[in-house]
Amino acid sequence: MDVCLERVLRGEAPRDVFTARGHGNITASNTRTLEITKDPFVTRRGDCIVACCSEKAAGELDVVEALAAVGTVVIIIDAGVAWDAVVGLTPRRRPTSRWRIVARRSFYVDDSTVAVGIDKAASGLDRALVAALRGGAPVKITVGVCPGEAFK
């Protein structure tokens, strides 16, 4: 298991924990990105969206300042019956989006980007978790940052 993931799970790294929920149209089939949105509705075209009705967006995270520095980002999606984590690098820029959170396999950064170079996108998530999300399950989202560390 990644060292930063272990630190976030133990509460030893700066993190923000909030809720969102799944939706019947979630496919989590995108191979490049993963998105969490405040939108209450998801279409099948939003194949990177893994949760909606989020309590927070990228610019509202408690760890927003840590995202502007060098470090590792961990995003944990926990539906109770199943969970998974995505690990990447900080975008080295403070996100400002008030609507969504995006993690990318690429190194493209916009106002919603909280992680780049992630180890897996929406399509790589545990399929039991995706099934729970498709069933509309409430989820606990944790975004943690290990400053100054590079993952793997």
- Rg, rounded, reads 14 Å
* The CATH class: Mainly Beta
Q: What strand order characterises the main sheet?
A: 1-8-4-5
The parts where pLDDT drops under 50 for at least 5 residues are none
- In total, how many beta strands? 8
Please, what is the average pLDDT?
95
- Percent of residues in β-strands: 25-35%
Largest sheet: 4 strands, antiparallel
Q: Give the overall silhouette.
A: globular
Structural class: mainly beta
CATH fourth-tier homologous superfamily: mth639 domain like
CATH topology label: Jelly Rolls
CATH architecture: Sandwich
- Give the helices and strands as they follow along the chain: HEEEEEEEHE
Helix content percent band: under 10%
Number of helices: 2
> Between the first and last Cα atoms, what is the distance in angstroms?
9 Å
Number of discrete domains:
1
Pfam family, one: DUF371
Organism: Pyrobaculum neutrophilum (strain DSM 2338 / JCM 9278 / NBRC 100436 / V24Sta) (Thermoproteus neutrophilus)
Protein name: DUF371 domain-containing protein
Would you write up a description of this structure?
- Pfam families: DUF371.
- This is DUF371 domain-containing protein.
- InterPro entries: DUF371 (IPR007171), Mth639-like_dom_sf (IPR023131).
- It comes from Pyrobaculum neutrophilum (strain DSM 2338 / JCM 9278 / NBRC 100436 / V24Sta).
- The protein has 152 residues and is mostly beta strands.
- The protein has one domain (3-147): Jelly Rolls.
- Helix content is 10%, strand content 32%.
- It contains 2 helices and 8 strands, in the order αβββββββαβ.
- The strands form 2 sheets. A 4-stranded antiparallel beta sheet has the order 1-8-4-5, with helices on both faces. A 4-stranded mixed beta sheet has the order 3-2-6-7, with no helix packed on it.
